[in-house]
Amino acid sequence: MSEAVAGTVAERFAQLYGAEPEGVWAAPGRVNLIGEHTDYNDGFVMPFALPHTAVAAVSRRTDGVLRLHSADVEGGVAELRPADPAPRSDRGWTAYPAGVVWALREAGHPVTGADIHLAATVPVGAGLSSSAALEVVVALALNDLFELGLRGWQLARLCQRAENVYVGAPVGIMDQTASACCESGHALFLDTRDLSQRQIPFDLAAEGMCLLVVDTQVEHSHSEGEYGRRRAGCEKGAALLGVDSLRDVAYGDLDEALARLGDEEEVRRLVRHIVTENHRVEQVVSLLTSGETRAIGPVLVEGHASLRDDFAISCPELDLVVDTAMASGALGARMTGGGFGGSAIVLTEAADADAVTKAVEEAFTAAGFTAPRVFQAVPSPGARRLR
Ligand code: GAF
């Protein structure tokens, strides 16, 4: 898909900037199979890349200027000089590529400017990491063109810094690492403490199953306060328990840890979610690696209940997807991503996928919700150069 758009993106670049681009790159969005909100607690996550990508045609400049254009946003070419100190108030789309240039320069990399034209197919505001795709595609292009020699995980760290400091969204490292490092046919088992990775084969079609992504069309945004409040609550929990991060609370010690939190009810719930969610990621890895793929279904459903009841970040639309999918024969379902809207995933027998989709669509109509967007997700390649 991205390969097919490379030519169109390059042509548009030439129209805009008067010369062929030096190259064209793609970086995907992601869905997270399991491991939600664990990434800023040094924990485990397990995303895989979507076929939907951000594609960038890019050429170097030598005058410090960054020119940006997007096929997906109204308006002409934006001309910027990513400033120091970094702005925290610029939340428009140009903040993501500009933040990446800022973060590369701040880390001492000689990025002397660029002309960039972008086109993306990752749905925006759907919890599928459209921002990370935008950051990573720009980071990879600049890494190649300026011969910086950075590895995927290093680019992910710089993109996270761009988003935390330049854009002002306190996100973890999962989405950027997923976009940079995922591989086709695999889910990425990532330890966010040291970014060590294992590619876990995840070929549902071969086993007669499929994974549906249900975009509820309820828009979410990480820069808004709720995500930051959950993060601060987790940090408070770690401080009260005297550990560096909630990753350090072992699953077997959970009851004792909860007892020590006394009447801090909200923090107790956050801690319980993070500790049980890390355990669920380990369960899913073990089930997938022992060929018991269908058995991950109930673990996904438990994860959803934990996000709904303990972490309190679901919404009626996401709950309706999970409840309806399970009532109509799905193997498992849960919300995915940051929450407060966005998307859910549904694991189902391939033969049941149409019936489950129809049931979810009908339930949304009956509830008076906006129709969801449903598609099948196949684990796809991570960021790469297209030409
Ligand atoms: C968002 C964030 F960007 C990630 O870092 C992660 O915390 C996720 O929400 C929740 O797991 O996608």
Automatic annotation (TrEMBL):
InterPro entries: Galactokinase (IPR000705), Galactokinase_bac (IPR022963), Galactokinase_CS (IPR019741), GalKase_N (IPR019539), GHMP_kinase_C_dom (IPR013750), GHMP_kinase_C_sf (IPR036554), GHMP_kinase_N_dom (IPR006204), GHMP_knse_ATP-bd_CS (IPR006203). Residues 11-60 form the Galactokinase N-terminal domain. Signal peptide: none annotated. GO terms for molecular function: galactokinase activity. It catalyses: alpha-D-galactose + ATP = alpha-D-galactose 1-phosphate + ADP + H(+). It is an enzyme of class 2 (transferase). Coiled coil: none annotated. SUPFAM superfamilies: GHMP Kinase, C-terminal domain (SSF55060), Ribosomal protein S5 domain 2-like (SSF54211). Residues 96-181 form the GHMP kinase N-terminal domain. Belongs to the GHMP kinase family. GalK subfamily. Mg(2+) binds at residues 131, 163. Residues 292-364 form the GHMP kinase C-terminal domain. Its EC number is 2.7.1.6. It is found in: Cytoplasm. Keywords: ATP-binding, Carbohydrate metabolism, Cytoplasm, Galactose metabolism, Kinase, Magnesium, Metal-binding, Nucleotide-binding, Transferase. Catalyzes the transfer of the gamma-phosphate of ATP to D-galactose to form alpha-D-galactose-1-phosphate (Gal-1-P). This is Galactokinase.
